[in-house]
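Structure first, sequence second, as always.
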């Protein structure tokens, strides 16, 4: 039975119904929010998201792919909270919004020591196999957003050269539960 991971657990792909393939429940600049008053009201925004997603279901949508990996202010507990309140399947990725520059954390973890995996790959694999953060939600695909100028070469190189990810990708293709996506606006 082909399956796909959703925020509320794995489901048979036959249950997906009508799917919106590229949405963002939230795009946030968390470092800005931590340093400036942006007027963000957590409760208000969560309630607004729940109302809008319920309206989607009423309009005939069954599944939403929230293409929001690291780099867009992803916070999975918030998405889990919303998912519990709506009758929608929500699918989430691992991955990185890199555009021109790779985040410093990954830039400085460039060279893994012998026996270690690349930090980028490590996180991507962990989020698919074990879950995102401390929670149970598993990513279903790897998103590397590129926009019109293409992926940052460093990100592309690090993903392509890693043997583990290449074999992992093959496994995912065989089991039909994930895909590698490069998104363009
Ligand atoms: Zn997008």
């Amino acid at each position: 039975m082909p399956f796909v991971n959703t925020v509320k657990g794995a489901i048979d792909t036959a249950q997906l119904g009508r799917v919106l393939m590229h949405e963002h429940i939230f795009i946030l600049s968390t470092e800005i929010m931590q340093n400036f008053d942006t007027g963000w009201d957590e409760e208000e925004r969560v309630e607004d998201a729940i109302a809008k997603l319920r309206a989607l279901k009423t309009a005939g949508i069954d599944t939403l792919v929230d293409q929001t990996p690291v780099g867009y202010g992803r916070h999975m507990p918030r998405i889990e909270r919303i998912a519990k309140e709506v009758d929608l399947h929500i699918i989430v990725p691992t991955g990185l919004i890199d555009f021109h520059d790779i985040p410093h954390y990954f830039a400085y973890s460039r060279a893994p020591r012998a026996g270690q995996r690349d930090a980028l790959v490590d996180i991507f694999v962990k989020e698919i196999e074990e879950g995102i953060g401390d929670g149970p939600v598993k990513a279903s695909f790897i998103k590397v957003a590129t926009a019109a100028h293409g992926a940052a070469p460093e990100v592309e190189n690090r993903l392509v050269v890693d043997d583990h990810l290449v074999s992992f990708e093959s496994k995912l293709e065989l089991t039909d539960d994930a895909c590698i996506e490069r998104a363009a606006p």
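Margin note: The pocket of zinc ion is lined by residues 22, 24, 67, 183 (CB under 6 Å).
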